Amino acid sequence: MERSAIAPMPSLEIKRYTGIMDWLTTVDHKKIGLMYFWFTVTMGIVGGALAGLIRFQLATPGAVIETLQAAHLAGGPEPFSLFSNGGGIFGDQDRFNQMVTMHASVMIFFTIIPGFIAFMNYIVPLMVGARDMAFPKMNAFGFWLLIPSAMLMLSSFFVQGGAAASGWTAYPPLSILGHGTKPGQDMWVMGVHLAGVSSILAAINFIVTIASLKVMKWRDLPLFAWATLFVSIMALIATPVLAAAVTMVLLDRNFNTTFTIASQGGDPILYQHIFWFYSHPAVYIMILPGFGGISHVIAAFSRKRVFGYLGMVLATGSITALGFVVWAHHMFVVGMPTWMQYYFQVASLAIGVPTGIKVFSWLATMWGGTIRMTVSMMFACGFLCLFVLGGFGGLILALTAVDYTLNNTYFVVGHFHMVLVGGSVMLLFSMTYFWWPKMSGHFLSERLGKWVFWLMFIGVFIAFFAMHISGANGMARRIAVYYSDFRFSNYLTTVGYLMTFTSACLFFGDLIYSYRRPKITVDDPWQINDIQQSFEWATSCPPPVYNFAKVPPIPILEQIPSHDHKH
Amino acid sequence: MPRVMSLSLALILALLCAHGTAADGPSVVLPAPPSATSAAPESASARIDADVKLFNPDVYRLDDQGSPVFPGHSLFVEPVTEVARQVLSATWFSALVFLPFLILPQVLLLVIIFKFKDRGDGRAPATFLTHHKLEVIWTAIPFLAVLIVSIPTYYVLEFMDDPPKETKDLQVVTVTGKQFAWMYEYKRYYVDPNADEKVCLQSSLDPVNQLQEPLLLTKGRSVSFNLTSQDVTHAWWVPAFGVKKSAITGRFTNVWFTPDTLGVFKGQCVELCGDKHGNMIITTVVVERDEFERYMTLLRHRDDTVPVWNALQPPAGKTVPAGAVAKAVAAFLQKGDSPERQYALSYWMASNFSSIQRVPPPKGSSIAEVLGVAHPADDHLARDKQIDEVIRAKRKQVDELLPALAKSLAALPAAAATPILR
């Protein structure tokens, strides 16, 4: 049996760099995981700041800009013009479109997806008892690809014509316009390509790591590792399709192809189908790892093992499978046959079933436990509350007939922010508070953490619930100036944004400050190893380069936790 | 102000058949006026005034804080079509079916947090790992809910797909999106019904200040859209009607509904289409059948009235040449001087003055362009004052010139008009 096999210590003869060179050349999954983490946090602040500019514009219906312009007309000084280039009754919204596009791209490609990859990188090899990822150099390459990718996208603000302004969906023919004169869209496409390659490399690495380096049996694999596996399969299948879609845009822009140009035999709807074939699975890529992670958090702080392990794995698997066959619910209004729309409606609704299984299983995990309300657990509960709310909006949106009204309104914006910020971001916070002691060797502040949680929970709820109201009242998305009827709900959204962003800044400060707190000396600072199925608590905080001197024993999998193990 | 203008312009109709003196502006010899007939100036002007208000609603109204107002209604507030009502009831039905799955987890979460919180009393946590019956229940019941919801929504979807077979008198409109306007083509309403190649009536941007014109619909008459696009993908959406469809290059998409409430309903383009996406508004006006037909008549003669309006726009810094305006009016009436054409001319002049005087754009640029006012870029106040003066002068000129001209020309035999104008 593997559990008794003693692995040799890694050779220490290799030349080791120190300081900055150590970080630049490392192939250690833990250091790469931490780099992913800091990259993510930085990009989260950048994306949040972009959101702030959007909210600045949308704080009032006519916008601050219009007020300044009116003052200028009356003889005042030339206004500082962020978005409006003048002209037209509502002003020009090109700069605003760039903000919207970049906010989405930064948040999706550089914050949420790599945010989960950070934990997958750091925790999964530890969880399954491996010394590193299966392909450490490829792992490092995958991370370093993200840097030029982010630089390409963000620097495109400063090129002629500014950044891409056709939304993160980059629907042609709009994204084809301006070819040759506005390189922002091309830079965006290349950025997506690099991020996509990074994503594919990471996916291959995770699949091989889990399949070949795990020391337990499949039936004992921790849920976070299961989620990682399913997400990697999704990313591996879907990301090349995204690459195909954006390549069509790139070719149409620069090489006179006509994939999407109707007058020359192309079809803009082809792009939409291909794009959403990636981008619907992408929304599960953005949340399934968190589903896995939260199972550990809830089990740990309820002092119970996770309820319905098999059901959880099967539910994750069926979400993965169903995620590939529902893409067209993003495009109900493009005029598909009725039967096809009906199929996509029913399939989309059906995803609610496995998701429901997961929610009820988490609740059943908590039931009867002795719940410790740490900040991590608070974020997990906050996630459950907001995610169910966002999911409810999703069920309504999945109904084709209703989607005819709600499609492309702020109801949709509210829905996906509720599940991405109320869901994925809350999950990321929960996982950070849970695993940061292991990753850095220092605790985050529990007292400040309560402020972080409540500010974020209330802020997210206010901001995105108000967006639902704007949308149901008829506010279209991606507009820079809106009708005064939506003034109050947009005001609420801006207030909620300020709370959320304040909370994120507090958290950022606490992360940096945490390195000045005393070092954790025990392996298992939360005292939860007895009810976890994984190995990461069986080594020091942070773990040594080689993770485990010898393959650790399977932690008490067969043993039912009793009150002897209570702290 | 629009009221005053249309009042004065309405005098065209009234004075056609009333006493008047020969205009001194144009260098044409005008025959003596015919004897007076009955047409009260007040009623005619009131009618034009009402029509301008009806067909050209003030959709750019700002609230007291300077922000545009949404005169439409959301589907969730006030549905005005059968489609929207069915969607609304499907929404509430589905929401009710799904509501337990929203409430139950939240309640359970609260109960669990308070009931099972570790109070340090040494209570041992429970040890159960599975509960097959429960798991089957929470798989089966949501599945059942999905099935329950799917059945009625299928019928709504079917209903929205095509107008019922027995629908008579379907109004067909081709809606074409372009950056950043909608072009409405009223099918089976021709510019010239007797021509060999029939051209359908169209309305798109207001020729005066390039603002989107409304789409006219008839109360109780089903309308079917063929949507397409000239450049990028757009989407047509009026919330109160409960319909939304993309307008895509290279294909037609379809949507139908039956508006059953009079009023102005507003929406906008909901597919990001470029840097003025937010300006691409939609205004629909639901009117009675006779009003709709009247608007079609007005639209039919609109193109002919454009030279008259253009004659009123001299090059920058010059005054309106009275002769040019008189010639334009004469040419218009010569092509046909039926009452409906005369009415169309006075209507469009009133309508144009009404729209040009609407909320000026923030920088006043488009009005200045239309009027040919030179831009003192550094002095907006002076420019605005100049615009005001130009409009006032033109209005005065139209008031004085058009009634007399029209009256005289109406009396002219069609054949005789040509040599006189030469």
Task: Report on the architecture of this protein.
The complex is a heterodimer of chains A (567) and B (422). Chain A has 567 residues and is mainly α. Chain A has 16 helices and no strands. Chain A is globular. Chain B is built from eleven helices and ten strands. The two termini of chain B are 36 Å apart. Chains A and B meet through α3, α10, α11, α12 and α13 of A and α3, α4, β7 and α10 of B.
Which key terms come to mind for this protein?
heterodimer; A: 567 residues; mainly alpha; 16 helices; 63% helix; B: 422 residues; alpha+beta; 3 domains; 5-stranded mixed beta sheet; 3-stranded mixed beta sheet
Nutshell version of this structure?
The complex is a heterodimer of chains A (567) and B (422). Chain A has 567 residues and is mostly helical.
Please give the structural blueprint:
The complex is a heterodimer of chains A (567) and B (422).
Chain A: H1 19-25, H2 29-58, H3 63-73, H4 94-127, H5 136-155, H6 184-213, H7 223-254, H8 268-285, H9 288-302, H10 309-323, H11 338-366, H12 375-398, H13 400-406, H14 410-440, H15 446-472, H16 487-514
Chain B: H1 2-16, H2 41-55, H3 82-115, H4 132-161, E1 171-178, E2 181-190, E3 200-203, E4 215-218, E5 223-229, E6 234-238, E7 243-247, E8 253-257, E9 263-268, E10 281-287, H5 289-300, H6 302-311, H7 322-334, H8 339-356, H9 365-371, H10 380-411, H11 414-421
Parallel strand pairs in B: 1-5, 4-10
Antiparallel strand pairs in B: 1-2, 2-3, 5-8, 6-7, 9-10
